[in-house]
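User: I'm curious whether this sequence folds into something compact or stays loose and floppy. Could you predict its structure so I can see for myself?
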Amino acid sequence: MVIQDFTVHTKELIDNLKGVCNSYGLGNDGNEFKIITQVFLYKFMNDKFGYEVKQIDPKLAKAENWEQEIAKYTDSQYEMLLLQMNPDSAKLKRVHFLSNLHNQQNKEEFAKFFDDTLRDIAIFNNDIFSVKTGTGAKITLFDELSNYITDSSQRDNFCKALVNQLVNFSFEKIFEQKFDFFSTIFEYLIKDYNKDGGGKYAEYYTPHAVAKIMASILVDSPVSNVTCYDPSAGSGTLLMNLAHAIGEDRCTIYSQDISQKSSSMLRLNLILNNLVHSIQNIIQGNTMTTPYHKVGDKLMTFDYIVSNPPFKLDFSDFVADLDSKQNKERFFAGFPNVPAKDKDKMAIYPLFIQHIMFSLSPKGKAAVVVPTGFITAQSGIERRIRERLVEEKMLRGVVSMPSNIFATTGTNVSILFIDKANTKGNIVLMDASKLGTMVKEGKNQKTLLSPEEEDLIINTFNQHEAKEDFTVVVSYDQIKEKNYSLSAGQYFDVKIEYNDITTAEFESKMTAFKANLNSLFAESKKLEAEIQKQLGGLKYEK
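Assistant: Here's the prediction. I'll summarize afterward.
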């Protein structure tokens, strides 16, 4: 079966699960997201378990039905098999298998049996697969899904319908696939539940083009054993692209996000992309007030940071808590004033930029999505942040993106690149605003970049090329001279068009100009005489 077929069948499974939810009155219900993603995850784990045990025991790989063959194992043999398994895969008891659920459908209170099975899987794998809150509490893998059906008499049938969708297709042959396949599947899986980013802090869903550009510019040479962090992770698009650029086995992921929904999405994303070893570092909590990742009593620093922070948000309820002695260095540029009205329009993103700058390791790099207004603001927090980036020589460059690159907002955005090792300067400022093709997405207009345009941005930036009306390469001193502006357009040369001509050609043109002027003067005198005539000899004041 070719990869396109796997993609089609996987999307069909997702659509069929949504169809079951719709049939039982949960279509567009707030809980549909949990049901779809958790049932999909259970199926994925079941098939991944089968795939893994077949790698360990060739007898299982040759068996016509591996589940029947594994049933012949003694308890001690089965326990030894679990000990040999890849730590990134969920460990299942034999009663957890999908085939067992399918065979038990006539069981009384099947919905309870279904919920108990998923809950026991979560408990059995709690140390590896649980997301923590900022207080240390663990959010397990599975909820009691049947309880989302308010009519208790329909719960058994609902769970049977879900199980019957799962047995028609196997994931086993897709586990050799890489990031591009799973990113497509993940995006399809959550597309109806992440239209506004999935959480209070995840303001906009980051387009893959933006995520790819950020990762490809940040990681322009091979690295290993590095840490990656996103303080406003959302569903993890930026982190997944970054991990893929580095190599999933050569980095460890850290994140924080205030949204439980976003944290659940990110956990699923990590499982699909062989980053289970990082789930323990996924934290649900407020990054500004209670940043979780620390070494001792100091905030942890990271080698790579990516972020698409919210641009506007009412954070008046906790901004006073940030203004403390221990936060003085972290928020060096200060805090925005709380307006009397429209508090939801408070600009929170400068707080995230300051937090990111503070959280970089000595040679750390970061890429942050910012509103384009940030790069030219002449006063306030934004200006002070840019001054610090220049004065401390930790700026790598800026890419100003096309308008409507985010379908959900018309805000023009730029990508700010920070590099604490870029002490010599050689800063790239790029105006990519003219690239892309405008398309309709739902009710919104969206600009799409072609793969060739994405590569143009990445290669031009990484090669430090200066291209007319596209990029400039500047020094820290030049930026100071331009009042700390990071807008490429302010550094472009003013173009004056001229042509080389001979003396004879010059004299010919001057003769023509004189003749034209004489003609205009004659016309003017003629018009003046006509006006005098019409006025009957009255004096005409010009």
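Summary: The first strand starts at residue 131 and ends at 133. Residues 196-204 have pLDDT under 50 and may be disordered.
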